[in-house]
């Protein structure tokens, strides 16, 4: 099938797939560093506002960075990296623990 016959959405998906496959680990790490410099302060302040706990927010932000370093070299940089970073801690074990009230004595 030629690219000329694909619908626009399929063309964009194919282009993203090609770009992701062509991304090396070094490219991914450069992208992570650039996104991290922009999004880290936003992530900490947003989480601190939600949780009312700055140290916990910083821990969650670091967890998001670790998830990013593990996944982005494999899956490629997402279309909305800031949203991906914000979603990572929400899906993590910390938010579940906070919701259940099982914080350690050091964070209470």
Radius of gyration: 17 Å
User: Strand content of the residues, in percent?
Assistant: under 5%
Note the total helix count: 5
The succession of helices and strands, N to C, reads HHHHH
Global structural class: mainly alpha
Helix percentage range: over 70%
> Taking all residues together, what is the mean pLDDT?
75
Shape: elongated
Domain tally: 1
**Biggest β-sheet strands, sense, barrel:** none
> End-to-end distance, in Å?
59 Å
Counted beta strands: 0
- Low-pLDDT segments, ≥5 res: 104-108
Structure write-up:
By secondary structure, this protein is mostly helical. The chain has one domain (25-100). It contains five helices and no strands. The chain has helices at residues 8-22, 25-51, 54-75, 81-91, 93-100. It starts with 7 loop residues before the first helix and ends in an 8-residue tail after the last helix.
Brief synopsis:
This protein has helices at residues 8-22, 25-51, 54-75, 81-91, 93-100. It is mainly alpha-helical and 108 residues long. The model is unreliable at 104-108 (pLDDT under 50).
